[in-house]
Amino acid sequence: MNHDAGHAKGEKAMEDATRTELEAAAFRRLLAHLDGRKDVQNIQLMNLAGFCRNCLSKWLVAEAEALQADLDYDAAREWVYGMPYAQWKAEHQRPATPEELAQFESR
Predict the structure, then answer these.
(1) What angle do helix axes 98-105 and 42-49 make, rounded to 10 degrees?
(2) 7, 13, 45, 56: which one has the fewest Cβ atoms less than 10 Å from its Cβ?
(3) Domains of the chain: which residue ranges?
């Protein structure tokens, strides 16, 4: 990962450890924000932002594999969803509307 990508010209390079801490804190904050917005459906996230909670889970698994760390998809989803996926789905997921499905299919 290129940690200097996105730095403005002339900006002092941040130490890798500090940048990693900030990125981790921001990721934890994103997960907390998504946890507080269980009303926002994955299809809505996909349609608006091009990623969803499942994408975050897959990205965690891919990064774990790159680091040779042990993290499977179910464990990653539990991390992202804050509970087992089946429980989250039963308690919070609603059927996608025809409009949401059409928008998703047109991507």
Answers:
(1) 40
(2) 13
(3) 16-105
- Say whether pLDDT at 104 is over 60: yes
pLDDT tier, 66 (very low <50, low <70, confident <90, very high otherwise): very high
Q: Residue 94 above 80 pLDDT?
A: yes
What confidence tier does 71 reach under pLDDT thresholds 50, 70, 90? very high
CATH number of 16-105: 1.10.3340.10
Alpha carbon distance 18, 15 (integer Å)? 5
Structure tokens at 4: 């200097």
- The number of residues making up the chain comes to 107
**How many whole angstroms separate alpha carbon 30 and alpha carbon 48?**
16
